[in-house]
Every structure is written in C-alpha cells, then in structure tokens.
Amino acid sequence: MGEAKYVEIAQEIESKIDIGHYAEGDKLPAHRALADELNTTPMTIAKAYGLLSEKGRIESFVGRGSFVKAKSQLKQAIQSQLDDREWNFSILQPCYAEHVETLHAHLQHSFAKLTKPALYGYIEDSGLISHKAAGMQWMHLQGVTVRSPEQVLLTNGAQHALSILIELYSKPGDYIAVDEWTYPGLLSIVSLLGRKVAGVAMDDQGMIPEALVDIYHRHKPAMVILLPSHQNPTTITLSQQRREQLAEIVQRYPLWLVEDDIYSFLNTHPTQAMTNLVPEKSFCIHSLSKAISPGLRCGYIKAPQSQIDRLSAFIRATIWLPSPLMFEVASNLIESNQAVEMAEAQRQIACRRQRVARKQFADQVFHAQDSSYHLWLQLPDGWQADSFTLTAKERGLLVSSGNYFYTGSDETSSIRLSLMAITDDAALETGLTALSSLLNAKIDKN
Ligand SMILES: Cc1ncc(COP(=O)(O)O)c(C=O)c1O
C-alpha cells in the first residue's frame, strides 16, 4: 500500500468533515471496519487517522476510538476583531481610513440617481450590457483583452465567480490544480463541492511549470487556478516568462485555466493577463473587493465566447442575477475614473505601510512587494505557525497561520500579515512593534 493511499483516505475524510457529513464529536469508523469497506488494511487507516490527528481534525483515544474535533480557531484565516485593544493583521481588505467617507459620498450621489426602471427588475442575460461594458473597462485597465461587453459575466464577487467555474468546469472527484500555498476560500470551495486539491510546487517565482506538468500526468486535473498578482498568501507576482510557460502547458493539455487576478491593480508595472495568451481555454476573474470594497460584491468573469451561454444560464438558474443596483454604483465609479483613483490611493497606502513594516521587521525573513497588501513571514526557528498564531492572539495580535493556506500536510512555520485592515497608521505601528518583539522573544515557543 503506497503512501498516497492513506493521504487520499485522509483527504476524503477531511472533505466529509468540511461538508458536514461528519459533525463535530462524531465517532469515525473503527480501523478494521473502514479498511474492509475501502478494501485496504487497518494499518493504512491508522496512518490516515494519524495524519488527520496531526492536522488537528480528529482526536484519538485508546480504547474509545477517533472523534471529529471542533474546527480549530486557527483554521480561521480571517479573524474578527473583538475590541479596540486588538490589532487585526488577518484581513485583506482596503484600508478604511478616509476611504469609507469617499465611498459613502459616492454612494449617496449614485443612489440619488438610480431612477432607471430597468435597475429594479429582472434583467435578461443576467445583467445590463452597460454594467458589463463597465466591467470590460475595468478589465482593460488590468491588462485583460476583452473584445465585447457580451464576453463579461457579472458575479457576486470573485468568490462567487470561483465557485461557478469550479462547479461548471469540473465534476465531483476531479482534481483541481492550485499553488501549493493558496487562498483558503478557494480550498473551501474545492472541498465543499467534492473536488480534490492538487497542490503544485512553487519556487520564489510562483508555480513551477514542470511541477504542473507532473501533476497533470498524475491527476489529470480539470483546471488550474492561478493568482498571478500579489499571490495570496506568498505575495508573488508571476513574471511574463512564467506566465507564458504556464499558459503553454494549458494550451498543450486538456485543461482549463482560471485566472483570479483581483490584486492586479497593485502591480507597479503593467502586466499582461494570462488569459490573453490562451483566450479560448481560460476564464479571468476580477472584482472590486480589494480595490474599492468587499461590501459591493461586484465581480466579473471574462469568458471565451463559446462558454457565455452556458455561464449565463448557470447564473440565471442559481441567483437570477447579481444586484443591478450595486452594479450601477460600481459602473459609475469605473466610468467616472473614481475607481482608478480610489484603487491608486489604496496602492499608495500599501506602499507606505510596507516601508514601515520593512523597518520593523529588518531582522526577519519575509516576502512582499513594495505595494502588496500583505507580508508572508517566515517565523524564526522554534516557532510553528499555529503556536505563534495562538500566542499572538493572546496578546491581541490577530495573524493568519500559514497552515490555513497550505495544501500539504506538514506543519508550517510561516504566517500571513495584512497591513491594511488596521485603519490608523499609529495603531499599525504599535501593533507591528508588538509583533516584532514577540518574534524576537526568547520564550517557550511550544
Ligand atoms: C485570491 C482571492 N480571490 C478571491 C477573494 C474573494 O474576493 P471577493 O470579495 O471579490 O469575493 C479573495 C479574498 O481574500 C482572494 O484573496
């Protein structure tokens, strides 16, 4: 029995826990019973349970059996701040300092003009063509070639777009290839829809093309999902060369590309969207959540012409359409150029905050670009991601454990730090100082 078998069984059980098939506290089948059912050995089941215990998903007791554990708080990459004495480094969102006032003023202005009856009814093709045209304008600014507004579909943010594409372009049981460190919301969709994650090895330039080919041969994934700009969590932006190498693989094999490029507005140099390289085999996702506000829930998919009807029918059948009222507001922001100005203001804040963090973490090893919203920090020797996250939380510092982003099963020792969720610059500095002293502390780390 190879190592892969027990890992597969563990993944299967983990998916069942995620979708609620096994609830918190449920007893898992005895080793022998499950081994007979799966046509394997009790030893393989013991190894699978061992792996799940290491990951904190189950607890085993001699004589009593194995039980599903409550989902650890650490698994929540995004933590809610409870009071003013906490510093939230866990949420990737725009910095709300003056931003909310600007946005509020715009909303008031826009809402006063929402008189078109069409905005209040059911709209054919799951959205107004003028809203799709504004989406096309935003995508052009992000380096995406879109030939006509009909090629754009409107969604309730990028999360919705990802879930539609995974559901429509793969089947239960299929593998989905992703970066070995990736956005947890994506991993949740894959597991919730009964697909399997194939984590593709990365180097300091992002997904390794040869590793994608290898995964293709081993698992025949239905699609590969890439986050080409300021990747969540590693902050890597794929070079033009890496984009071309990965796109060439998509062209060569029967594989869809889903490009989620919602951080592209942070790029200092204009980039070519990957979808331009393989337009007939790719979908490109954008949203206004990171540049303007997640509260708008405005997302866009640029799809190949051949797939528009299928996608529109799916959106119609599931939600009819995302709110035209919010898309009218978003379209006004884009057409008046305010969206670009607000996004640029956020980019400037990110640059300023990266400079502050660089000073505070001069002794630390981390990855970030000058304009990233976040840092990907390698913890000093002795710290594990979960133990650091818990210790930091006790001190009011909310950070995201690297384990939450990891597709593998080893313990990790990196954390993601968002520099944008704390509104006030002075509070950010105080929080960074506290984090820095914790990182340097000579304390019992386990
Ligand atoms: C890579 C990535 N994709 C999608 C999302 C979700 O975006 P939205 O709010 O538009 O659904 C996030 C949010 O953190 C993200 O980091």
From TrEMBL:
Listed Pfam families: Aminotran_1_2, GntR
Q: Which SMART domains match?
A: HTH_GNTR
Write the record's keywords in alphabetical order, separated by commas.
Aminotransferase, DNA-binding, Pyridoxal phosphate, Transcription, Transcription regulation, Transferase
Residue stretches making up the HTH gntR-type domain: 3-71
Tell me if Transferase is a UniProt keyword of this record. yes
Q: Name one GO molecular function term.
A: pyridoxal phosphate binding
PANTHER family associated with the record: HTH-TYPE TRANSCRIPTIONAL REGULATORY PROTEIN GABR (PTHR46577)
Q: Which family does it belong to?
A: In the C-terminal section; belongs to the class-I pyridoxal-phosphate-dependent aminotransferase family.
Protein name from the UniProt record:
PLP-dependent aminotransferase family protein
